[in-house]
Write a structure and sequence with these properties.
Length: about 220
């Protein structure tokens, strides 16, 4: 066995910041009122984080790259039947891939629908004026009635999976996402996580934040 750097620091920060921001979105959305300003700010932060993860999925550490945990339906089926490989258990396994795909996709759709939403009282998404009334209505209904519930359901399922792997399989999935390291069989590659890659991640994040800011400025 060897100690392998599985999750680089940018990936770990993304993971925890996204979790905190999504929780903040749910809370501020439920409270409403004056907290809606923070709801929008957190939404813009989530959009920035999602854009960052999209880019980081191509240039980030080994185990954070989409190419290294994008599995075919056949591979997923074989893993569910207990025919997975050792390497699939290092980073995101095939079921973890489905979890990541679902969480990122639903979160992005939730943010996108929020940008086009209008509660017809005091809160209007910055992009709602560029869509027809019908589409704004659909986006608003999805954002407040459907997307929120689906996102919360996936979040609970994600937590349940972590507990399952801890109790039933003796795998601690939280610790590697905190310190980055995991005990793996010899020969598994470590993710690059030096100051050069971290500075590159910071640059990517700044560019993503600038893109979101530019979008909002254009829509104003």
């Amino acid at each position: 066995m060897q100690t392998t750097r599985v999750w680089d620091l940018p990936t770990r920060l993304f993971h925890w910041l996204l979790a905190i921001a999504v929780i903040g979105l749910v809370v501020t959305g439920q409270i409403g009122g004056n907290w809606m300003d923070w709801h929008f700010r957190l939404g813009y932060c989530v959009l920035t984080l999602l854009l960052f993860r999209l880019v980081w999925g191509f240039v980030g550490g080994h185990w954070s790259r989409f190419a290294n945990f994008f599995y075919s339906p056949r591979t997923i089926w074989r893993y569910m039947r207990g025919q997975g490989t050792t390497e699939q258990g290092v980073g995101h396994n095939p079921l973890g891939f489905l979890s990541v795909l679902g969480l990122l996709g639903v979160t992005l759709l939730q943010v996108a629908s929020g940008l086009f939403s209008d509660d017809e009282i005091a809160t209007t998404g910055p992009l709602s004026k560029f869509a027809s009334g019908e589409w704004v209505s659909r986006a608003s209904d999805y954002h407040t009635e459907v997307g929120k519930i689906v996102l919360l359901a996936l979040f609970v399922l994600h937590i349940a999976a972590i507990v399952f792997y801890r109790i039933k399989r003796g795998q601690n999935l939280v610790s590697p996402m905190l310190n980055g390291d995991k005990q793996t069989p010899t020969g598994m590659p470590s993710a690059r996580d030096d100051w050069t890659s971290r500075c590159m991640a910071l640059l990517v994040f700044v560019l993503c934040a600038a893109s979101v800011t530019a979008l909002l400025a254009w829509a104003a």
